[in-house]
Amino acid sequence: MAVGSELLFDSLGHFGRFQACVYFATVFQAMSCGIHYLASVFMAVTPKFVCAIPGNVSSILFHNSSKSSIEDIWTLWASAENYIVVQLENGEIWELDQCSRSKREVSLDLTYEYEGNKSIFSCSDGFLYDDTNWKSTVVTQWDLVCDREWLAKLIQPTFMLGVLFGAVIFGDIADRVGRQRVIWFTSTGQFVFGIAVAFTFDYYSFVIVRFLLAMVSSGYLVVAFVYVTEFVGIKARTWASMHVHAFFAMGIMVVALVGFLVRTWWVYQIFLSVATLPFILCCWMLPETPFWLLSKERYRDAQKVIHIMARWNKVSTPCKVSELYSAQQDDLVSCRMGDSDTSSTKKHNILDLFCNWHIARRTITVWLIWFTGSLGYYVFSLSSVSLGGNEYLNLFLIGSQYINYLGKYGWKIFNRHSIWPYISLHSRTIPNNCKITCCWKWKHDVSCRKCGCSFLCISEKCLDFHATCLDIAWVLVADEQDPAMECSQASSS
């Protein structure tokens, strides 16, 4: 944003009452983006399953245990290589695997081990699923197992493909028709498509509607980030734009909570979609950003927005559009000094990111950073069900730690000591008896004077911790200290 544009915020305030209301109303809906991005973690769970039984059962055998129903077997089921032996009322004995079933030719005794001849059949009667944790998922709804398992694995990739298309398409549309219209359309689309997903009648309609849901969710997140940035002054812009993603993380925590309470996938989807309904009722009241209005030469509308901001922020003498326009023209002239072509304003597009090697290198670097960061985060988040322990608590903690890492403001809001599990994961990379000090300002690499290990300074106050291969003990230090501390001081901790 040009320096001259800051005249608006110097006049009206960088984060006054008006900006606070617009900001929190806008980022509240960002929760729905986090909700829909991670909804498939529980919606597409594959429970334990076996082929359906081709008749009425009289006896069930699993290893040395005899049970009266299939439901009693799931607590003993430990591997996909297991199978269940059932005896039907007509005397037939069947072995039920996950993706096939076998009929024993000789049905004399009901034993688990059998060396005789078998006739192998497909699971034409469907499958039996363990409904202990989930009464219904999209996998059990449309039998996305065995030879249809790849369809279940395709659910999240198609969603993320929609995220890609939505970010590109709606980002460009927002520059053409305005941020406010795109925010209204995408937020309404999230609610409509979110509810529609719950009422899809087959797998293919489910994937298509989820693809559209991904497009509007991604479009909202991208445009909302720009929208709040254009309403907040430079003194608050960094943390305000950063904490848009804090509400995204809160959406992830909502997914964990709703998943714990609701165990039927379509009811679960409805609850997630209704969570941000209040924003739909008020998003039409959000104004267009004055800077977009100025870029489209809608000066009268821009002045109206400025007057509204002044009234809310209790400013008696707001700046005028003519002053902003004059400042922007001065910035434009200063930026074009030395340019041979000053006759007209150039229209920019995405190809300008590769207009020369210097800009192209930075563009590719930023893309790679986002790619690797997003890849690691989503792989970790989407695999929370497989991490062991309580899957709902796993996802909830992932969302909470995402908030914790958003910067010094997020760090102060949440417990500073909640970062210890992440440090303990890397404790083996830190030499024993080394005391390291982090100072939260991204200053420079610091090298330990004794062992030579390096680390980044990333905070505002000093956080000392003594790392060993077994545990971590740490203490907050009130005063700023020299980051390169002698390792010999570690013994005192």
Written description of the protein model:
- The structure is a single chain.
- Helix 8 (179-198) packs antiparallel against helix 12 and helix 11 (244-261) runs antiparallel to helix 18.
- By secondary structure, the protein is an alpha+beta fold.
- Helix content is 49%, strand content 11%.
- A hairpin with a 4-residue loop joins strand 5 and strand 6.
- It is elongated.
- The strands form four sheets. Strands 3-2-4-5-6-7 form a six-stranded antiparallel sheet, with no helix packed on it.
- It has helices at 7-12, 17-28, 30-38, 40-43, 138-141, 149-153, 155-177, 179-198, 203-231, 234-242, 244-261, 265-274, 277-282, 290-295, 299-313, 321-335, 357-382, 391-404, 408-413, 420-425; strands at 49-51, 57-62, 65-67, 84-88, 93-96, 101-104, 118-121, 127-129, 434-439, 445-447, 454-456, 462-467, 472-477.
- Mean pLDDT is 75; it is low at 407-450 and 454-493.
- It contains 20 helices and 13 strands.
Give a summary of the structure in a few sentences.
This protein has 20 helices and 13 strands. The protein is α+β, with helices and mostly antiparallel strands. The strands form 4 sheets. A 6-stranded antiparallel beta sheet has the order 3-2-4-5-6-7, with no helix packed on it.
